[in-house]
Design a protein that fits this description.
Chain lengths: 381, 381
């Protein structure tokens, strides 16, 4: 087992009605005014917006509104948020929404306290030394952004979907109420399931070391995601299934599964980020296309772990059966499992590979993944 | 799944030689002088003491020494430590040792900042509102004290082994170097394994709710502990086995396995605390006596979870087989599995039950565990 630092100071408030405590929680931390970040209005339709506002007002926490975050959130919008913070007396960022909203909130929190361009953090030209505190109320379980310090933002000018990571961006408090996730469409439930599984398997397959406990943890997460997704496809308001799905999602990318593994890498995310930067496909849909292709290409490099995956997760006897069972499961829940199914032309493979390679270099995978090898992977898709 | 708060702000620094960074880590946090708490001198024999001192001196962190913590640590000794802090200009407590040392460090950290008697916290007469920061270097994996806010102290006057819990007592940083654990005797390795399993199963069996993910997590911890204990009995210096054992130990009692379970209780610890308060038996040895007895007594109250345990952990088909397999495994590693094997006379059962009942009341189990039912449990031991 390799050496590691595990440090996750995010406090999770999990359960029904917890969003009604947000004003009190902020006031306890001495927060006077927040930037209230949200998406394209679904929180207004659902009534969540109103409950949050009431809670803030009850505790005399002021707010400046900043809606309009879209999926695959944009740098230009983040910069608007940063300007809003700088123009007002704001001492925390409150994100209410899914991964895109929380990722935007973190980027704003990092960019609002410096004079340099926030994108410099994403291209490793500057490092994050401070940030405003971030608070979240999560409405979609997938990104685990509520329990880590990561943020993924798309620069629409350069067509780069890049990321930052710092414990300074770990939310101080995240509120996870599974009831808020019950209105998620079946389509997005499927994409979320794929995303959580992707977070779980990236390091599981690519790590230097495979401690049994961490492998078991990953298998536990995947089994939980599969069984709860199947329940939720039939019964979207099943509270316990939503709750287990949400908690498994947070565990998949909070630093626990990767501790001691010597650090693997994220090739499926690397390729998917190129897909969604170029085609604006949903992240989970892009991953469903990439994962089975990558697994077929990669399996010989770590055959024993692929055999273990097949056996422990699906009770299958070979690496190949494990891969095809996972691919069929993605298909069964309605996620696209090939480029054509995702309406992405095969002719785009060279462009996708080129874009992905930029990120491979950025993430220290430039040696392991050439443009040619990314094209080989996509040939399976 | 029940509502919960998960908040574990302890930073873990895990791996070889990490103890040599303690001075730097303390200096980074602005700590000028620590109370250096340790046990009966094994850290001096092993050379760890010297390395810690060198690291502190290199970073100009001053220290006041406070050795002499014994297993089942004593209130009188904690009070000496509190007086030492109050008489000096000390801004943190650094515990170097096993669970007893860390538990003592926490009690000192809580007691040193108030004028009231620290024992008031243990008997619920006062609540912990502040504490000095605690840092730890762990030499024995068992208590998980390095990653939680719990402290168990024995009042030798009243013969009460009672506990406190507060996130304010969570160590700020804990250093876990598996190499420091290689000199643990086989006897204490066995007791540690039993202790970790005890932490895992208490809530697993007694919880209001049993989310699958949390149950899987517990089963993963137990399987990891069993397989690594068997490796370490043959090969005590196996680094990877020590490392997995240590990390599983931290996970067993850091709040993760119990999140969403609606809160179970700790009947095995309740009875064991009476055993060790009265007979000064090692905690893990006492647990090996209590656990199989309690399981036999309790199994009908939650049969499906006992059947699940038998199947998932041991591949057995019935609750009874699960219990006897665990008991035989405790026996095989050299832990006492009955009162006679622990040299505790059966005649002491009424006295043990009476003492345990005091704790049952304290821990809110007074309704579920009468003196008579504790006697019934001990009749199986």
């Amino acid at each position: 087992m390799d050496s590691f630092t595990y440090y996750n100071p995010t406090r999770i408030e999990f359960g029904r009605n917890k969003e009604n405590t947000i004003g009190e929680l902020l006031a306890q931390d001495g927060i006077k005014q927040v930037l209230l970040v949200y998406g394209t209005g679904s929180i207004k339709k659902s009534g969540l917006y109103q409950r949050v506002i009431e809670s803030l007002e009850k505790s005399c926490v002021q707010y400046v509104e900043f809606g309009g975050v879209i999926s695959n959130p944009l740098l230009s919008h983040v910069n608007e948020g940063i300007n809003l913070v700088k123009a007002n007396n704001i001492d925390a960022v409150l994100g209410v929404g899914g991964g895109s909203v929380i990722d935007s909130s973190k980027a704003i929190a990092a960019g609002a306290v410096v004079e340099t361009d926030v994108w410099d953090f994403f291209i490793n030209k500057a490092s994050i030394e401070k940030a405003l505190p971030v608070y979240t109320i999560v409405t979609l379980a997938a990104a685990a952004s509520e329990m880590n310090g990561n943020s993924v933002i798309t620069n629409e000018v350069t067509k780069q979907k890049y990321s930052i990571a710092s414990v300074l961006l770990n939310p101080k408090i995240s509120i996870v109420n599974p009831e808020l996730m019950m209105s998620v469409t079946k389509e997005y439930l499927a994409y979320s399931a794929v995303d959580i599984i992707a977070h779980s398997i990236e390091v599981y397959f690519t790590a230097v070391d495979h401690p049994n406990f961490q492998s078991r943890l990953v298998e536990s997460i995947i089994k939980t995601v599969i069984e709860t997704t199947e329940i939720l496809m039939e019964d979207p308001t099943n509270y316990d299934a939503r709750a287990e799905f949400a908690w498994a999602s947070s565990q998949a990318l909070n630093g626990l599964t990767t501790s001691g593994t010597g650090g693997g890498n994220f090739p499926n995310h690397m390729i998917e980020h190129a897909l969604s930067a170029l085609f604006n496909i949903a992240h989970g849909a892009g991953l469903a296309i990439v994962i089975p292709a990558w697994m077929k290409w990669y399996k010989e490099k770590n055959l024993s772990q692929f055999e273990r995956f097949a056996k422990e997760v699906f009770g299958k006897d070979s690496a190949d059966e494990g891969i095809t069972t996972l691919q069929r499961w993605f298909d069964s829940i309605g996620a696209p499992v090939s480029l054509p199914k995702g309406n992405i032309p095969r002719e785009a493979i060279p462009e996708i590979a080129q874009n992905a390679y930029g990120l491979a270099t950025m993430w220290g995978m430039g040696d392991a993944y050439s443009v040619k090898s990314i094209e080989e992977i996509l040939a399976y898709a």
